[in-house]
Amino acid sequence: MAPNTPRILKDSGRRHVIILANPRAGPRNRRKALDDLVANLVSRGLQPALCWELEGLSDHLKKANGLIRCVVAAGGDGTLQEVINRAPGLPISILPLGNENLLARHFHLLCSGKELAETIVHGQVKKLEGRVMHLHFKDLNEYGDGYDVPWGAGKADVKGMLAELKRQGYKGYLSIEYEYGDLDHLTTNLPKCVEFFDKTTAEVAK
Questions:
Q1: Which CATH number covers residue 69?
Q2: Is there a domain that residue 128 lies in?
Q3: What are the φ/ψ torsions at residue 163 (nearest 5 degrees)?
Q4: How far apart are CA 154 and CA 152, in angstroms?
């Protein structure tokens, strides 16, 4: 859960729900759950945008102009990973349409569009409290198809995420995820990530 999730879900002006659907995920008969999700969101006054390609997700994230209530990964674990990487700092939910859906199975999330719509409407949150064992940390210059930038220079609330990890007493490893540019670019910017991390964790520790 992003650290600003409770504030976002209490904002009645945030009515956009962006859905990234994987057309190749799972049995075809699960498409009904996706149709039910869209129909129930509309009936409750929200504005769902369904996209089948990553480029579509990027476009909708930009067009929503900061009024996004939630981003839904409708597919398998790979679809969820794409949403997490492309929508840092935003509330994320899962409609498990894939064959595995390990995270959804762990939290007993059903493949029900109607139930997920109710969860999004009411702003119900399930925290990963105490369940984080390892994480990859990144920051992007913009939502969607942005590229990696040094921590603290992009859209993600990096300080907020570090504060949340501290609150949870996280003691595990944290990996820098930076996949943009050539070797010279990495040599220049990876130390900036480490510098920001050291500076921010010192502030958070106070």
A1: 3.40.50.10330
A2: no
A3: -65, -40
A4: 6
Q: Is residue 142 part of a domain?
A: yes
Verify that 96 and 147 share a domain, yes or no. no
How many domains would you assign to the chain? Answer: 2
Which residue among 98, 122, 146 closes a domain? 122
Cα distance between residue 20 and residue 114, in whole Å: 17
SS3 content of the chain, % helix, strand, coil (to 5): 45, 15, 40
The H-or-E segment that residue 158 falls in is helix 158-167
From the CB of residue 117, how many other CB atoms can be counted at a distance below 10 Å? 25
SS3 category, 140: strand
The strand pairing partners of 109, in sequence order, are none
Question: Which tens digit of pLDDT belongs to each residue from 64-105?
Answer: 877 899 999 999 888 888 888 788 778 899 999 887 787 788
**What is the torsion angle, in degrees rounded to the nearest 10, for the CA atoms of residue 158, residue 160, residue 161 and residue 163?**
120
